[in-house]
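Dig into these lines:

——
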Amino acid sequence: MAEHIDAMNLDANESAFFKRELEVIKAKSYDTKWAPNKALGLLPVDASAGPAATEITYRSYTRVGSAKMVSDYATDFPRVDVYGTETSIKPHDLGSAYGYSIQEIRRAQMTGFPLETRRADAARRAIEDKINSIAFSGDSATNLVGFLGCSGATEFTLTSGTAGYTWAVKTADEILADMNGMVYAVIEATNGVEIPDTMLLPLAQYNLIQTKRLGTYSDETVLSYFMRTNQHIKKIEWLNELKTASDTSGTRAIVFKNDADHLELILPIPFEQFEAEKKGLAYTIPCLARIAGVVFHYPLSICFVDGL
């Protein structure tokens, strides 16, 4: 259990000052946003398990059986049933810390300047970096699964254009054929049950379709035309992690249904800070998060496309 601030090392005014400063620092740190880490803003997050959960279990069900034509007085009605399966995952803790020496606290109190907040921001950023990494790439040491490691996803193979397979050498029409092809690959693989609404691209490919015009005399780009004509995709986003996400460390694009019914990042504790602990002539503030990776409820609703 964390120790409270020791008044034997800080006098009453210094102790009160330190407590007030920590309240401000914690609030500021908690509200800090880090744009490059996109997992928390992109993937549905489930924190419902709570901080004390040691195992999280998900159930899925399927029905079997069918109806048939029957006659009067029939007794051979076909029987249907429902079967369920369970999947369990274990959450794991992530930790970091920051701190201040007694002299730093006293100097700040004497001069009236607030304590440095960059350390608190750095501690939060360290945890968010790790959350982002696990959310996308998983963690082999704890067997946590990331979004890019989805097993059983739909796959789409790029078709060859007149000059090759990669988008850098393809025409606008050829790129559009690939973009529509990866969307309809999910729809066809699931017989229309799953319809993706989000497309993720490596940054270079996203920039390409954002600037590549349909023709020499056209003001419309591949991106604007696709968003105007494809009735399913509502959002296209770039993601740095896709630059080396394929099985051969090459580029990968992804289309998927982005809601909590299809996949979730399990994050029982997004971020929390504890009471300051005295260690020698300094105070340390531990920080904690708790994560269980990404759960896929319908893997076929996700489509991977490599080699862009």
User: Anything to note?
Assistant: The longest strand covers residues 92-101. The first helix runs from residue 12 to 31.
